[in-house]
Structure formats: structure tokens, C-alpha cells
């Protein structure tokens, strides 16, 4: 299993559990979590990331199809879709900047809502 795939598996585990230990297992103490690349500031530091994840209520249990697109020793690019049935759906591209221990020291989400099909 590759480092980016291990990280993605850990992300999904932490996302589903919301357990602080699971979140700490995938982000470094000084990690930056960017919701969008053009955010004015990231969520910075593991304690802030853990707090953000524990406060984040999902509207429904998400369905996801995420996979590693490309990676090297320092960067994993993950793409896929996330759907909250009855709510929003997103197309995602994630930058996961990996520390030597396999945790992310910088995470950047690029997410978009799918375009509605044109009527006609």
C-alpha cells in the first residue's frame, strides 16, 4: 500500500469516527487544513483541526468514491466524489502534503458542486 493510500484510508476512518486519535494519526502537530486554496487562512495546528472535525456535523452519512490519482514521496493527489444523500454533492481534488512519517502537514481541498444539466 502506498503512503497516500494509507493516508486516505486513515482520513476515511477519522472522518467516520470523528475520534481525536484518528484525526491526530493523519495530521502533524503543525498541520494546515485549507478548505479552499484561496482561503484567507487555514485551520492551523492539530488541536484546531481536531476541534473543527468534532464540531462538524454532517447532514447525512456521506457516500464517497475517493482514490489516489498520483503521488510521490511528499505529495498525494486524491480525486473523487462525495455525496450527502438529500443534500449536496461534491467533486473533489485534494492535495495531501506528506511529512516523512506519512501524516499530512498541509491539506488543501479543491471541491466543486457538479454542474446541473441544461434543460432542452
UniProtKB/TrEMBL annotation:
Pfam entry (one): SnoaL_2
Domain of life where this protein originates: Bacteria
Residue ranges constituting the SnoaL-like domain according to the UniProt record: 10-88
Protein name: SnoaL-like domain-containing protein
Record organism: Agrococcus citreus
